[in-house]
Amino acid sequence: SQELEQSPQSLIVQEGKNLTINCTSSKTLYGLYWYKQKYGEGLIFLMMLQKGGEEKSHEKITAKLDEKKQQSSLHITASQPSHAGIYLCGADGGGSGNTPLVFGKGTRLSVIA
Amino acid sequence: NAGVTQTPKFQVLKTGQSMTLQCAQDMNHEYMSWYRQDPGMGLRLIHYSVGAGITDQGEVPNGYNVSRSTTEDFPLRLLSAAPSQTSVYFCASSYSRPAFNQPQHFGDGTRLSIL
Q1: Which of A42, A92, B37, B62 is the most exposed place for a label (fewest CB within 10 A)?
Q2: How far is the C-alpha of B66 from the C-alpha of A2, rounded, in Å?
């Protein structure tokens, strides 16, 4: 089954700085999802990447999919306190094709003034 | 638009008690699933359903039952609560399976403590 490893596990950055979170898969990635979770809340869908080389942006967050490396990266430019939370990557769990997403363990981001 | 609604938001149980966690979605999604989230373990799949009347086990199904009698509802039952089931439970739904590149929408979670 698919396994996703995220790095780093936690990150503390100063407001205004850029940062990158990585998600590496144990198998070929056919689709990769990024979610954000605030403490005490559910997961909010950010972006979905479907093809190798694909890059998507939403406000100051950019995600890329490197199919050859079986990896995706999430880049935040000029971080703000509102970016704080847990970022999770998810991918199709493989198998019969019916399985829901499997997730990485998340990257906890703190943004300090 | 309510999206995915989970009830209750918080619950404390004693060991051995049973209860049902409710999940309802109003988006006419065929695909629904239950996850539990534990520190250091990430999200782990408990059960899922590809449509009314069809359910299947995920990674950690023991101690839990599900049924899917309608498209809208997907309740999760704890048969005899154990302290190891203390966790945050999330219900998710999507139009179709993730293999078709359909993002899952999540509820706000149920925080369950077993004493």
Answers
A1: B62
A2: 24
User: How much is the pLDDT for A94?
Assistant: 58
- Interface contact A97, partner B, CB < 8 A: yes
Contacts of A44 in chain B (CB under 8 A): 106
E-strand ranges in chain A read 4-7, 10-14, 19-25, 32-37, 43-49, 55-58, 61-66, 71-76, 85-92, 101-103, 107-112
Chain B residues lying within 8 Å of A30, measured CB to CB: 99
CA distances from residue A46 to A59, A87, A95, A103, B105 in whole angstroms, order as listed: 11, 9, 25, 14, 11
Is residue A67 a contact partner of residue A22, using CB atoms and an 8 Å limit?
no
What is the rounded distance in angstroms from the CA atom of residue B108 to the CA atom of residue B37? 12
Tokens at B68, concatenated: 């899917």
